[in-house]
Amino acid sequence: MADAPNKITITICGDGGCGKSSITLRLVRSQWIHEYDPTIEDSYSVTRNVDGIPYFLAITDTAGQEEYRGLWAASNLKSDAFLLVYDITNASSLSALDYFMEMIDIEAEQRVEDNQRLLKELGSSAQGLEVGMPPPVKIIAGNKCDLKETRVVAAKEGLEYARKHGCGFMETSAREMVNIEETFALLVRRVVEARQQHYQKDVQATHLLQTAGSSPAKNPTATGQSKGAALKSTNKERSLFRSFCCGIFRGKERPSQGQEQTDAIKDSVSGHGASLNSTAPRLWRRLSCW
């Protein structure tokens, strides 16, 4: 359950030197810092209006170095959202996201189990309560998109990685202030959607528990069918948690506007990113959540 309706916790993770702190400071203080100063862990807070509603963002900028990753896993997995950052001029920084992705996926599975246990323990008293935690929102950001001449990770490659792991995708530049505000606004919107989806399911699950508790047993066949239906429901919920990507579920038709953006980006990244280097910065501002 969230501490407050409009508070959102965001953890920024990724390999060292990919620009996590630069992104954070651009959002929080409108600062650009060129020098690389390795971070252990810094916390920031900022308020942003998204769709006319103020949100309090509690942001944790984490260490990318391997020696600090145990600390990361122990203290940051309960966040509402994760921004996974890689450097488009460093191919290994994209594969370095595998570790963080695995930890987040494990956390998502754990939330499913914890939510089911809480609903079972509370029973009918859970009615009207926001029980448990929604699935974590994940967005991948390919940072330093202004460095076109030294790019080694094509936008298409970053997009394919994001799709493979069920994440949203953006390309950003902390130095040029490209897609910084847009990325965090997108995180906020997807967290809001995740909460709505999750707590709506809580109400439905509580109603099912009440119905099951008040209905007399039918016969062995009916009981077996009921258990089968419950198992299918559980498996469905797990599937939804795993496939949840910024509020978008598998099988759900994308909005027409999003499809236009998708087509535009696909056209732009064809030819191994050749056209990316020749297009105006406008292209990067069109990169949206997938």
Automatic annotation (TrEMBL):
GO cellular component, one term: membrane
Key word Nucleotide-binding present: yes
Any one GO molecular-function label of the UniProt entry: GTPase activity
Chain intervals for the UniProt region annotation (Disordered): 210-234, 252-276
Compositional bias of kind Polar residues: 210-226
Keywords: GTP-binding, Hydrolase, Nucleotide-binding
Superkingdom classification of source: Eukaryota
Name assigned to this protein: P-loop containing nucleoside triphosphate hydrolase protein
Natural source organism: Aspergillus bertholletiae
